[in-house]
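User: Predict the complex with magnesium ion.
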Amino acid sequence: LGRSLRASLNKLSTIGGASEEVIAQVLNEISRALIESDVSVSLVKQMKDKIAAKISLTSDSHVNKKKLVQKAVQDELVTMLSPKTKPYNMSRKKTNVIMFVGLQGAGKTTTIAKFAGYYARKGWKVSMVCCDSFRAGAFDQLKQNATKLRVPFYGSYTEADPVVIAEKGVAQFRKEKYEIVLIDTSGRHRQETGLFEEMQEISAAVDPDNTVFVMDGTQGQAVYDQAMGFHDAVDVGSVIVTKLDGHAKGGGALSAVAATSSPIIFLGSGEKFDDFEPFNAKSFVAKLLGFGDMRGFMDELESVKDKDAEKRVQANMAKGKFTFRDLYTKFESMSKMGSLSKVMGMMPGMSGMANMMGGMNMDEKFKTWKFILDSFSDDELDGKVDIHTAPDRQKRIERIARGSGSHPAQVEGLLQQHKMWAGMVSKMGKSGLMGGVDNKQM
Ligand code: GDP
Ligand code: MG
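Assistant: Here is the predicted structure with magnesium ion placed in the model:
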């Protein structure tokens, strides 16, 4: 998915002011890439419509459409992976019974071991019950895992009725005040009615606090129907996706969430007990989209934000306004540009300032000023409170100095600088100079 999606997004960047037509084309390509990545067709269609609507609402031609589409796709996928249903929250004051369901081979038994290890490490009293009396060797597998993890287990070589095993096992661990009881069930081969009936009977017998649907991440489009089947049979409350280590494309996860309206709580990424991590929708989507390097992606998004901020500064300056927030934005873009001496001329009146300040270390100065501005309130930053003329000016200065670990005299110094710059901007704004200057220099 990554490559083709990036390719289609790149197309947007090469075409200046992307037309509706181009955006539609790119959205089609993204849709195709998502479907290839096992996201269900109907989900992709829903998503596409939402994104198209979002983008056409943004008529501003200056906005970078590539970034907009990118961000819209990311946001939409994250939203889809974050159902309104909150994950079941285990309480340490009771016995939390958690039943694991899913097809045979999905990774239930392995996931139970990972889950047990994860919480045992955090100090929870964990136990396991093997209700898979269908597959030969199922009990041995669970027993081995439990022994390795030093977690107590319950099961039987002779009892054929999983409901009886479940009842006895849960009763015993309840009595012994275990905080977590994990119930392993049989998956069989297909979604036979027999399997679902068995699950329902076990569920009715032990009344689990949560039922976790374990799905094989390498499964394709079939996941949606599968997840639906399990959700209809028992009350699925969470999803765990396994086998995301190999060639899994991961799109099935979205389908599982959509089908069960349940959140994904963990991901499995290998056969070892440690190959297990809590689910994070944002980084999952980043991987799904092939941006892998999340940092790079975030930087790109950041630069969209920067552009928005720059636009706000320009709009303000054109009106002869220059707030502390604008000043902050200026400091930020200057420090990103590298050498400050090179960009000194970009501040109104700064070339003169540079001379005035002589040998002073400007980078240090800017850093201090940014710290100081971080301690401004929003109202102060936006000029809703004019700190220069506020009756409690001195109090505010002291608060800001305290908050930023600086001396009130340094805050005073920044205020004086701002006053000077704001005065210049105001003059330039009034004389209509800014319009011509800011595009080139600011
Ligand atoms: P169950 O039938 O649902 O209980 O599935 P198992 O837990 O027995 O797992 C079936 C197979 O998948 C086993 O060989 C596991 O080692 C393997 N498996 C489980 N989870 C993962 C995973 O996250 N990654 C990989 N690569 N293999 C896994
Ligand atoms: Mg099993």
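The chain has three domains: 2-81, 96-282, 309-441.
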